[in-house]
Structures are given as C-alpha cells and as structure tokens.
Design goal:
Mean pLDDT: 87
Radius of gyration: 27 Å
Protein name: Phage portal protein, lambda family
Organism: Desulfacinum infernum DSM 9756
Shape: globular
Strand order of the largest sheet: 3-4-5-6-7
GO molecular function: structural molecule activity
Number of domains: 1
Order of helices and strands: HHHHHEEEEEEEEH
Number of strands: 8
Number of helices: 6
Pfam family, one: Phage_portal_2
GO biological process, one term: virion assembly
Strand content: 15-25%
Structural class: alpha+beta
C-alpha cells in the first residue's frame, strides 16, 4: 500500500504560527500542564466547576467563623487585619471641597458636616471615622460589610436627620434563597428584580449568633443598604474573608 502523502497523514499535521512556520509540539502543551493528571498532579487533586455562589452558600459561615477565630487568637492574623484596615481607610472620607462663592453658606455646610460625623452612628458609639474603620475591618475579616441608612425624625434633634447603622454580615443569611411574595427571586438573602438588579435585602432583625432565638427577617429596600465587598468572580453576590486562602496555613502556625 502506498504511503499517505505527509499532508494527509495525521502524524504530519502541524499547527502553523502567524508566519506559516510549524509550532513546536512542546509549546502546544506546556501552557496547560497544570490541567494534566500526571505524576505531579494526581487525579486526587479535587477541583470544582461550581459557580461563584453555590459553594459560598454553604461555606461562607464557616469561613467567617474561622477568620474571626484567627483574628482573635493569632497575633499575625490580627496584625494583618489592622494593617489592611489602616491602609484602606487612611484619613477616611473627608468633606467635599464645595465650589461655592457664598462664604457664609460654605461655612454652614462645613459646620454641618462636622456636626454630622459626630452623630452619624445609629448605635451612638462611634463617629463617622470610627464607623469607616469598623466597616473596613468587617470587610477584611468577614469578607463584607453592611450599613443601613436610617432616616430620623426632626424631633430627634440631630443636625442631619440621617444616621448609619453598621450590621455584621451574619444578619444577611447566605443560605436563604427562594421566591419573594411579589415573585422576585431571592438569592443568598438578596432580592432581585426581573432584570437582575438588587431591590431588597432580607435581614435578620437580631444577630443570629447572639442567642436571642429570633429568626424573624425584615425586608429592607436596597436603596437603604450599603453592601461593601470585593468580588473575585463575575456574578459573585457575597464577599469572601480576605484570609480565606491562608486560613489553614495560619491555623497550623504555632
């Protein structure tokens, strides 16, 4: 039988580069060596193709708890969190430079800002700078921070009838998914409309870790919630503790 011409024999098929030159076979496989199942990368290496939220729904609570435990009990973890918070916040949010010709009005606005930062905390414990630092700590340690805007009455006697209530992410149940009464989908405690926009947060009234026994939720419009986290994947709904990749390593340190 006559041999096949080299151009038709699969053994001689070559991939050419942009200049028509054959690409060496080793270059076709080297970039994806880590996807192989050779001796170094055994098939026992467990991997997952889960979406950005499926695995989080059942592991986020454990990640938060372990991250908090490390921060409480490991000086290296606590120091890392402190450094991250300091670098994130710096001098904090400063008042805008109002481009106003009326000097009296400009001074009134500056004074109003100065008064508000002292009264901003709905719990009455921190000023606005302290709240920023606490929110940054929650984002680093727990992966995310929640702040609820609380409108106040005029008779409450505040310089500005608005306060900020900080909430730990435990108030937003990552395992709560379903359908709202209005037909909107709820995913990881967050309600979305038909075009995928966040419209509400379903929050526990009490912190589930305080032992009060209440699991009652309240629906809060998304316009009243600041949900701060660092998304690592497209479509990710909740934040992951920043120490998640090194939790086991830190736990094993003496």
């Amino acid at each position: 039988m006559a041999p096949k011409p080299p151009g038709r024999d699969p053994r001689f098929l070559r991939i050419l580069d942009q200049f028509g030159r054959p690409v060496p076979r080793r270059m076709l496989t080297a970039d994806y060596e880590t996807a192989s199942f050779g001796r170094r990368l055994a098939p026992t290496w467990g991997t997952s193709t889960a979406g950005p939220n499926m695995s989080l729904a059942w592991s986020l609570g454990t990640l938060r708890a372990r991250s908090r435990q490390l921060t409480r009990n490991k000086d290296i973890s606590s120091g890392a969190v402190d450094t991250w918070v300091s670098n994130l916040i710096g001098t904090g949010i400063t008042p805008p430079r109002w481009q106003i010709d009326d000097k009296a009005l400009k001074k009134d606005l500056q004074d109003l800002w100065a008064d508000w930062i002292q009264e901003s905390d709905a719990d009455g414990m921190l000023d606005f700078h302290g709240q920023q630092a606490l929110a940054a700590r929650a984002m680093v340690e727990c992966g995310e921070a929640l702040a609820r805007l609380r409108i106040r009455r005029t008779e409450d006697g505040l310089a500005v009838p608005l306060q900020v209530q900080l909430l730990e992410p435990d108030h937003l149940d990552e395992t709560y998914s379903g359908t709202a009464e209005n037909g909107n989908p709820i995913r990881m405690g967050i309600e979305f409309n038909r075009i995928g926009r966040r419209v509400a947060y379903h929050l526990f009234r009490d912190h589930p870790g305080d032992g009060l026994g209440s699991t009652e939720r309240t629906r809060v419009p998304a316009s009243e919630i600041c949900h701060v986290y660092r998304p690592l994947r497209a479509g990710q709904l909740r934040g992951v503790p920043w120490m998640a990749p090194v939790i086991l390593t830190l736990h094993e340190l003496d």
